[in-house]
Amino acid sequence: MVIFEPAKDLAKVAHFTLSNMRPYYEQYSVDWDEAQIEKMTQELVNYDILVQGILVGVMRLSFDTEECWLRDLQVEQSYQNQGIGSIALAEAERLAREHCAETLKLRVFKNSPAVHLYKRQGFGLTSEDERFYYMSLTVS
Fold this sequence. Notes:
Shape: globular
Mean pLDDT: 89
Number of helices: 4
Radius of gyration: 14 Å
Distance between the termini: 25 Å
Helix content: 25-40%
Oligomer: single chain
Order of helices and strands: EHHEEEHEHEE
Low-confidence stretches: none
Number of strands: 7
């Protein structure tokens, strides 16, 4: 069973994010460290993703009057491809509806395997640049 709880330790999940994203940061010359990630995420709505009480991921959201942005979705590598990402996206959509958002948006590195997950879950491509796909899902 997957549980979402408000993040208890932003430094710990910043370390988690940096570890997961390191290959992308290196490829695209993104020079971030844990302290920067922690600082950037303080203003976001941060959720720990737990399975049997074990921290296996993090989900970060931001809201405005019409949109919910999925700012980050990280799942520990050993827990990937077990449906946790799909469950997290369903939770993000539920939270977007709860906040009266009309659209759930995200940006993802073009070479991330998560692109396939987002497409399977109904996200459509809205734009792209040299590094990212920008995707959205209408929240019903």
